[in-house]
Amino acid sequence: MTFTTLHKINKIFYFTTLGLYLFVYFGMLFQIVLGIVQVIIGIILLAKMKELSKEKKRKIQIYWLLVLTDFLLIVINFIYENDFANFLCFFLFPMLIATYFYFLTANITSDSFLKAEWKNLALFNYEVDPKILEKYVPNGTEIDLWSNKCYVSLVSFMFKNTKVLGLKVPFHIHFEEVNLRFYVKRFENGEWKRGVVFIKEIVPKKAITFIANTLYQEHYETQKMRHEIIENENTNTFIYQWKNKENWNTIQLETEKKLIEIENDSEAEFITEHYFGYTKIDEEVTFEYEVQHPRWEQYKVINQKMDIDFGENYGNEFEFLETAIPNSIFLAEGSAIEVKNKRKLEIADLFIPRGLNYEY
């Protein structure tokens, strides 16, 4: 039986259970069937472990650890007989395990974690001293420069038509994001892989923050956010705002309507043509994931307005950006994107001598 078939079976029973929960009692009964089916699938996955990567093996092990934990809780509850514990042991915790197992089988059958559209990316790009970024550089990578300049970028954009492991989560399909990022590269198999490291990513949904921080160990934060697009006869105005404590931060760009190409070997190409994400877990461990999208086009910026408390949002070390003048500002149209599953870089892959003499 293939991994795809196992996931389809799991998917049918999982969503049938969710549907039957509209009639509470039937959902509770069918959840028992779902649990039995998932345990059987879990046993089959144990038999097929040799075909899986280390990361996927680890996720199966976590599933069985959760199952064992719930079994022990049930045994303990038989001794103490508590109604609330009954609810936790027989319904809530098993459903959380079932949800985890659904995403586990989806992850095994696909090398894509997320598919979406990134639209209307407002990019403010600043030249900075690379020394302030050293502590954020993941092991195995080094800072990527353009024309001997080290950049950080503040990027605001829209997530649209978002699917996590092929599933559209209600109320989490369209949303804003703003992030502060810089650029790195990693040498592998005779060539340089160019990537991005995020210092912080702000979104308006707590579930997104939880998933990104838990599964990808990223640095997400949840804030109130809003956006607006004002279309005029000859121009468009894009407004992104997010609230930190009691204050609203604002990015506003007025652009021409006509799309223009991003030129080869340009600064805009350097900023947009990075196709890997790197996450620093600790001083030794680095996660890498690939981001696929076609080459973007851009809108020419006519006017811009920015009102951001960089110190409050990103810490004292980035407070200087409040008075810094961006080297460039542009708005990329964006496109459909696909984020591949992360992989933990092996120790042998990570060693690259680094120093302060950064050269591109």
Protein model, in words:
With 360 residues, this protein is of the alpha+beta class. The chain is built from eight helices and 14 strands. Strands 1-3-4-5-10-11-13 form a seven-stranded mixed beta barrel. The chain is elongated and about 65 Å long. Residues 353-360 have low confidence and may be disordered.
Structural class based on helices, strands and sheet pairing: alpha+beta
Radius of gyration of CA atoms, rounded to a whole number = 23 Å
Number of strands: 14
Q: What is the helix content?
A: 25-40%
List keywords for this structure.
single chain; 360 residues; alpha+beta; 8 helices
Task: Sum this structure up briefly.
The chain is an alpha+beta fold and 360 residues long. Helices cover 33% and strands 37% of the residues.
Q: Which helices and strands, and how do they pair?
A:
Blueprint: H1 3-20, H2 25-47, H3 54-80, H4 83-109, E1 112-127, E2 142-143, E3 151-164, E4 175-188, E5 191-203, H5 206-215, E6 220-222, E7 224-231, E8 235-244, E9 247-261, H6 267-272, E10 276-280, E11 286-292, E12 297-307, H7 310-314, E13 328-340, E14 343-344, H8 347-350
Parallel strand pairs: 5-6, 5-10
Antiparallel strand pairs: 1-3, 1-13, 2-4, 3-4, 4-5, 7-8, 8-9, 9-12, 10-11, 11-13, 11-14, 12-13
Helix pairs in contact: 1-2, 1-4, 2-4, 3-4
